[in-house]
Design goal:
It contains 5 helices and 3 strands. By secondary structure, it is α+β, with helices and mostly antiparallel strands. It has a 3-stranded mixed sheet, sandwiched between helices. The longest helix is centred in the C-terminal third of the chain and has 29 residues. The relative contact order is 0.17.
């Protein structure tokens, strides 16, 4: 579901790099400030927000981890974004080890 910007299939991690305007960052603050073509942009962005939530739900129900980063966070805090990805990979690996160990104990 959806079109992740990066998919780490080995660990089932979907990474989305979302633009602040298109995906509604701080939407309740920004929404009243839209002046031109308000009806179009409000409907468009709210639909994008709803779609993002639905895609996240679908991916999670399929066992994927979903990471979403705002474009400016990637530019201004790239190391933090990379750290989040690495931590997620480590968490997946840990859970795989625990599952393997638990399965061996059950035999």
């Amino acid at each position: 579901p959806g079109k992740p910007d990066i998919a780490i299939t080995k660990y089932k991690i979907a990474i989305f790099c979302d633009g602040e305007f298109w995906h509604g960052k701080d939407w309740e603050i920004k929404k009243p400030k839209i002046k031109n073509n308000r009806d179009y942009w409000i409907q468009k962005i709210e639909k994008n927000i709803e779609r993002d939530v639905e895609i996240d739900k679908q991916l999670k129900s399929m066992g994927w981890r979903v990471l979403r980063f705002w474009g400016r966070d990637i530019v201004n805090n790239l190391e933090d974004c990379i750290k989040s990805v690495k931590e997620t990979i480590s968490q997946v690996k840990l859970e795989e080890c625990i599952d393997k160990y638990t399965n061996e104990l059950d035999r």
